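Lecture 7 notes: from sequence to structure.

We start with a single chain of 299 residues. Read the sequence below before looking at the structure.
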Amino acid sequence: MRYGRWTILSLSLGAIMLLVQQGFSIGAQFPDHPYAERYRHAAELLEAALPADSEEDTTASLERLSKGLAAAVDALPADSYVADRLRSLKERLQTAEASPVLTDATSALILAIVRDLRFVPRAEASLPEGFPAPTPVGEVEVKAYPTYRAAVTDNGSAAFWRLFAHIKKNGVEMTAPVEMRYAPNGETPVLMAFLYEGPNQGQTGADGAVTVRDEPASLVVSTGVRGSRTDANLEKAKARVGAWLDKHADRYESVGPPRVLGYNSPFVPRDLTYWEYQIPVREKGTPQPKEGAAASPSP
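Now the structure, written as tokens:
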């Protein structure tokens, strides 16, 4: 689901102009995730379990890796998707034949997880009022969003410029994230939205090709992703959220198409770019959300 070359170029140029005119948010920082300390502690436990010597006895290395995986699972939130991955790795170590190849492969996977657990998204702008902290990379979680005001327009090569002109004209500061909303089939991005700083800022209504509207409070299942928004990364994000929803099908159900929240400009290196893939949900047994709560595909 890559965007066309001219769309990407337009978005990049627009982001550069916006940041130059408004200035960088020097020292900006997103709020810590509620379980940030637990994720950092899990990363420390996993890193300490990695083999320090390539000539170390294979059995001893695998035993230490297994203990480290168990300790990290205990450190993470009970319903953590990352913890489930670590449990699967531990089961593999216990059932597979011990070998240096197994040790190296498991160590490489653990090191990648450690890097994700320690990743801190770069904040170039502030979150809208009341927004939750970004979801850790590789994790899947339920997040509650408050009512917020958004400037929305049809997606396309000119979308960024239309929204940019709108917020400049109305004195609205840039926030993070920028929202991409998908069609009901979940395959095509159809809308782009800039989010206002607060739900009472400015006025709702039409402004040319841009519509300012209030989005109701909502519940989503979210996963954090680092790196470019490629087809491969998007499919991995979809798979994580899909697996989580399958596991929790007795409690949650999807109520609308997905959205992507992009937090970074082209100034951030691709491997440090952060975004979230989200699906709106409701708890079973609760009333259906009001019309529009699941991000209708038209402004």
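The radius of gyration is 21 Å. Keep this in mind for problem set 3.
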